[in-house]
Amino acid sequence: MKGMMMHRPLLIADILTYAAEVYPDAEIVSVRTEGDVHRTTYAQTLRRVGKLAHALKGLGIGTGDRVATLAWNGYRHFELYYAISGIGAVCHTINPRLSPEQMSYIVGHAGDRVLFLDTTFVPLIEKIRGLLPDDLQLVVMTDRAHMPESGLPLLCYEDLLGDHPESYDWPDLDENDAGSLCYTSGTTGNPKGALYSHRSTVLHSMMVALSLPAALQEGKRILPVVPLFHVNAWGLPYAAPLTGASLVFPGPALDGDSLFKLMEGEQVFSAWGVPTVWQGLLGTIRKEGRAPNGFGDVVIGGSAAPSSMIRAFEDMGINVCHAWGMTEMSPVGTQGNLPARMAGAGADAKLAVKSKQGRRIFGCELKIVDDAGNRLPHDGEAAGELFVRGNTIISGYFGNDEATQKAMDAEGWFGTGDVASIDRDGFLVIRDRTKDLIKSGGEWISSLDLENVVMAHPDVASCAVIALPHPKWDERPLLVVVPAEGKTPDFEDIKTKLSEHFAKWQLPDDMVVVEDLPLTATGKVSKLTLRERFADHVLPDA
Ligand code: AMP
Fold first, then answer.
1. Which of 57, 261, 439, 495 does the annotation list as catalytic?
2. CB 401 within 8 A of CB 419
3. Residue 122 lies inside a defined structural domain of this protein
């Protein structure tokens, strides 16, 4: 017997029309590339999104067409999210940190018809115009007064909106239609596309809102440092309007001083981003001797949050939520809120749990398997490749059957490429990427576990552990360290600290000191680059 309930499609445009009606005055504040701070509300934004939808139609954009963006976090980028998906087209966000070859590859692979770009990126597009399709239309996201001089035929965003009507009759799309597209910033091979549907996007927003209720509520102000150009800023442009939270977009300046000033000025309660960004902010906090006024919550994900970073925030009374996910998962898979029974626990016990990668959010199933694909117990000990299943996880890569076949298992689960264990309370612990694990004499060593301890050393600003080939043991760990300001890290001293947590054979064989670590397009340490850079490094007993 079937239930007798209406079936309405889950559509992205409905999120903003809802916010405009129920939370009309919640704000979107943006640091603009023009240099000033811009303020608007969800109600005003819906009206501009209506105009933009008409303008897109005017450019010839129809259902299923791909429209690309190359832009920082700001209100115009937010408007594009809703207008493009709202008319039934696909919003393809491009990461500006990709190489020109990768960028031209994905524009071609996606079949983009129009590219909307911030003024900042005009010189970049001028350089690579020859690599892009001839018929790609270019729209600069600014007004007439700020249009840059250029030899390229550039359209102006505000002119395009012109005097189009503010209301748009949003079509009743199929909820399974594609709404947005994001390519993984693969460090090897070509990037692969995750094509999100309206349904997956709305469900993901609700899942995120349910799982992170401290930040996502009416009256709270959230700073997405995590970019709109990568995995939909972890779903914030949808989850915030859904819950009535306000958004503060930082624009291009993401250094500690700029973020501190913006957060204090805008009374930001919750800030979301990758660990490298919080390292910068913590530097400013130490300089100022205090946290920005009103700051009470930080969501850290994208790479492992070092325990020393979690402790630094928590010691200031700022709640840390350590989350895990990936592009292919929309992206959020877990949330790091403490179990209620731990409310009265000591700081060390809380830190131990917060350093794990959190518990799965509703709708995202997790399994770990051994090399033969057998399920492993969730006992906190067994570690194996992590697979996921759910409504917000890709069923395959866009236009890439080969990668799809590699990623999916026989039961239809998606292989994350992460090695993990899951404890009896359901907390996930990411031990490593499969390709970053160090295999020494048939046993493996987790680079993440070693890094976590080294990061707490006062002489270390940041670090990475990579595998180097070894004639006897196959691979051995090399520690790469960036010193804290004015410090000279001592390898023997670091090894003594590590010995408190690891067996002797797990300790790094050698240490090299560098000025900084290479980052990927999404702000993670690029171990691939480090492995290439130190390929000829000879370990002491190799
Ligand atoms: P991306 O698709 O660029 O978001 O990268 C996803 C990958 O980042 C995951 O498969 C993990 O390897 C890594 N990652 C994300 N969040 C965390 C976390 N909290 N701890 C450790 N690794 C993480």
1. 439
2. no
3. yes
State pLDDT tens for residues 376-432: 999 999 999 999 999 999 999 999 999 999 999 999 999 999 999 999 999 999 999
Annotated catalytic residue within 328, 334, 354, 522: 328
Give, for ligand 1, the residue of 421, 430, 522 to mutate: max count of ligand atoms closer than 8 Å to Cβ. Answer: 430
Annotation says 328 is catalytic? yes
For residue 491, count other CB atoms closer than 10 A to its CB: 15
Compute, in angstroms, the gap from residue 308 CA to the centroid of ligand 1: 19
Which of 399, 433, 467 terminates a domain? The answer is 433
**CA distances in angstroms from 494 to 498, 507, 509, 510, listed in the order given:** 6, 10, 12, 11
Peptide bond into 331 cis (omega under 30): yes
Residue 131's CB: how many other CB atoms inside 10 A? Answer: 14
Q: Is the dihedral of CA 277, 279, 282, 288 positive or negative?
A: negative
For residue 152, tell me if it sits in a domain: yes
Q: How far is CA 169 from CA 53, 56, 150, 198, 353, in A?
A: 10, 14, 36, 17, 48
CB of residue 96 inside a 6 A radius of ligand 1: no
As a whole number of angstroms, the distance between CA 409 and CA 459 comes to 44
Structural domain boundaries, residue 405: 365-433
Please name the amino acid found at residue 364. Answer: C
Indicate if the pLDDT at residue 117 is higher than 90. yes
CA 274 to ligand 1 center in whole angstroms? 10
Q: Are 26 and 236 in contact (CB under 8 A)?
A: no
CATH number of the domain within which 382 lies = 2.30.38.10
Please give the average per-residue pLDDT across 141-146, as a whole number.
Answer: 97
Catalytic annotation present for 272: no
Catalytic residue list contains 184: yes
63: pLDDT strictly greater than 90 = yes
Tally the domains of the chain. Answer: 3
Element (H, E) at 404: helix 401-407
What whole-number distance in Å separates Cα of residue 322 and Cα of residue 86? Answer: 32
Distance CA 106, CA 354 (A): 37
CA angle 220, 226, 232 (to 5 degrees): 90
326 Cβ closer than 6 Å to some ligand 1 atom: yes
Give the Å distance between the CA of 191 and the centre of ligand 1: 16
0.70 exceeded by the pTM?
yes
| Domain-ending residue, one of 400, 433, 466 | 433
86 and 228 assigned to the same domain: yes
The stretches of 251-316 forming alpha helices (DSSP H) are 256-266, 275-288, 307-315
3-state secondary structure 469-486: EECCCEEEEEEEEEECCC
Region 226-231 average pLDDT: 96
Whether 444 is catalytic is: yes
Shared-domain flag, residues 211 and 98: yes
Are 502 and 388 contained in the same domain? no
Whole-number Å distance, alpha carbon 347 to ligand 1 midpoint, is 26
